[in-house]
Amino acid sequence: MKSATLRMRNWRKHNPERQRENDRRWRRKNLSKARAKNRAWYKKNREYKLQQNRLWYEKNYKKKEVKTRIRLRKHRMTRQEHDLRLKEQQNRCAICRKLFLKTPHIDHCHKTNRNRGLLCDNCNPGLGHFFDSIKILGNAIKYLEKWNEHGKNRYA
After folding, report:
1. What is the pTM of this model?
2. Sign of dihedral through CA atoms 47, 49, 54, 55?
3. Owning domain of residue 69
4. Which tens digits make up the pLDDT trace of 78-87?
5. Do 53 and 111 lie in a common domain?
6. 81 conformational bin, left if phi > 0, alpha if psi -120 to 50, beta if neither
């Protein structure tokens, strides 16, 4: 190997932060080239990468942190946004106002995929069973008011 190549490898080994910054700068300037290079590598090594992902998933999925990260990514929410929402709701369900004892569900609109709030194990499927319909929920309220014998239910 040429001495210039050896010097460059040695420099990279001893200056990882600067090398990382150089790589980022190159990527920003040459984004289409970088993407093409990544696509070509993935196409060539697809099975290897999928196997790596499967092994990592099997090893790490049981960990609470990984489950949370997967759930947040699914709902396009950052950890900070989730924590802020929890703080705004005072660690309580947005509907029934009970304290969360388990990990809250991230409620979202199925038409727009916008996140609405954090719900408990009972309220989240409740909204789903009513198809997020204000009309159906209104009918349910009227029904309960008609048949409410005790004047108050246990959650009111």
Report:
1. 0.60
2. positive
3. 44-74
4. 999 999 999 9
5. no
6. alpha
